[in-house]
Structures are given as C-alpha cells and as structure tokens.
Amino acid sequence: MGFRDVIVFISSNRTETREAHQNDQLKTRYYKGSKEKVMEAVEHLIKKNGFHVKRAELERGEIIGQQQKGTKQLIIATVITVRPFKTAVDFSISTDSLLPTDFGKSKKQVISFYEQLDKTLTFIGTGIGDELL
Q1: Residue 103 and residue 132: Cα distance in Å, rounded?
Q2: pTM
Q3: Is 91 helix (H, G, I), strand (E, B) or coil?
Q4: 104 contact partners, CB below 8 Å, separation of at least 6
Q5: 107-133 pLDDT tens trace
Q6: Which of 64, 79, 65 is nearest to 31 (CA)?
Q7: Other Cβ atoms closer than 10 A to 57
Q8: pLDDT digits (tens, 9 = 90+) for 52-69
C-alpha cells in the first residue's frame, strides 16, 4: 500500500469498484450468466448480508440496498451484460459515520461480496472489459 493509498484509506468512508482500479481486489468482476441470473444472485447476496433492498431495477441493472442495524451503510450494485452470458458487476458502498473514515469496513465488505459471488456464479475474470468489447 503506497502513501497515496494510505491517505485515501484514512480519509474515506466509501469504496467503489471500477474497471481500471489500482487495487486488483476492487476491479470490476465478470461472471458467466444472464443479466437476470446475476441480478438475482446479487440481490440475494445483499439481503443475506443484512441489507434491506430499497430498489432493484432490472432494466437499469441497478440494486440499491440500505443497512439500518449497527453502522448505517448504503450499497449500490450495478450489473451490466457486456456480451451474451458475460456480465459485469460493480459495487459502491458508503458508510454513514461521524468520523471521516470507516477504517476500511466498506472495502472489506466489497471484497467479501465478490468472494461470495465467486462461490455462487461462474467467475470469468477482473478488469477484462476491453477484451470483451
């Protein structure tokens, strides 16, 4: 972890995944399956981890969940089909805290969500969007 990463870690209460993230664990992940199947798996995962699903929109590929117990958190999961039966999943988790940091809780949660999805769905790869387009 470089100096910049330490500063971001200390001063952040949210974690977001993306295609070209510096941290390999936080890169967009791709799974084999239809958008509907992956959306269903992600929604089940969110509920299983104590979040209440506020909205799930299949057309937009977006699931929004909120955790009320303990530390309040908001999760937004984005599911996009890039090719038939090749679907990308991204997460954004924000923690509502009086402090300017969540001490890495949101990062650990995103990594845990991906690990759980890897067991449920067929994992294809991370950050491979350019290869699939």
Answers
A1: 35
A2: 0.89
A3: strand
A4: 9
A5: 999 999 999 999 999 999 998 877 766
A6: 79
A7: 10
A8: 999 999 999 999 999 978
- Report the phi/psi class of residue 53: left, alpha or beta, with left for phi > 0 and alpha for psi in -120 to 50: beta
Are the CB atoms for 79 and 42 separated by under 8 Å? yes
- Return the H-helix or E-strand segment holding 23: none
Residue corresponding to tokens 């470089």: 2
- Return the SS3 of 19: coil
> Are 29 and 88 spatial neighbours (Cβ–Cβ below 8 Å)?
yes
| 6 three-class SS | helix
| Tokens 């991204």 belong to residue | 90
- Tallying the residues shown for the chain, one arrives at 133
Q: Which domains does the chain carry? A: 3-124 (3.30.310.220)
